[in-house]
Task: structure prediction
Amino acid sequence: MSRIVTVGAAQLGPIAQTETRHQVVTRLLSLMQRAKRHGCDLVVFPELALTTFFPRWYFEKQEEIDSFFERSMPGRETQPLFDLARALGMGFYLGYAELVVEGGRTRRFNTSILVNKSGEIISKYRKIHLPGHAEHEPWRRFQHLEKRYFEVGNLSWPVVRAPLNEGSAGLYGMAICNDRRWPETYRVMGLQGVEMVLLGYNTPVHNPPAPEHDALSNFHNELVMQSGAYQNGTWVVGVAKAGCEEGVDQIGNSIIVAPSGEIVAACSTLGDEVAIARCDLDLCNSYKNTTFNFARHREPEHYRMIVERKGAVLPK
Ligand code: CDV
Result:
């Protein structure tokens, strides 16, 4: 038995600040068509895939900030994505900035959704590990104001059972960008049995607080996704918004990682490109049932003992 899902890592090149939603959606539609010609069941787009990466600027006017946000999904401009998904019989993962009125107040999240082959949203995730800073820091060459423009997500890391291929269902999880650097992200989904983690990112090559990391940005990108995949026996599909966007170089290096931790497909440019892999979800079992059989080999009591032991010196 095998459960094959053909996945396209639909990397985007830079999006200019002046690009309209219509222009961006047209690019996404063209990547969906391309992926379908290669037999994809599912395409994965990057984080904040509908606009330029706006947290790189300090904006004072709320209406300027809100122009980057979606008030409904699908909305008028994004509806064609859902229509094409239904017409092609292909699912998609999409990152976008979400503005919602919840609990009587306006809230803003860095969000992603998973849409099935019938064009229906079947899962939503709101980014939890928001990087960067909340105040304007003029010493930086560019800002990273996610902590100013977004709230921390309130949906944990959902894992949804969905039939995105022709055969039986798989277990799909979602994460966004900086989440991929944190082992907890994968483990929370691993504990729910996840078989494929979908994630998009915008990663500048230059890290202003730690420029000594710049030369390692692709290495770290691969390191975290490969280890997250292996340690949880899951596929990981990581997709970039790449290239020089409004003067800021962003890494590409979109990859599809097998539960073995091996990279099985990768983008080779910094532009709009689809990297494709036929992913057998049953490959996860080989890891989930042996080395990473959580029921047999995890020792949660011991992890707790170490943290709770009286007198233990814990880092602040
Ligand atoms: N958009 C991001 O979350 N970017 C972070 C950068 C700031 C380090 C990342 O982890 O790629």
Q: What stands out?
A: The longest helix spans residues 21-37. The first strand starts at residue 4 and ends at 11. The two ends are 49 Å apart (CA to CA). The chain has a mean pLDDT of 96.
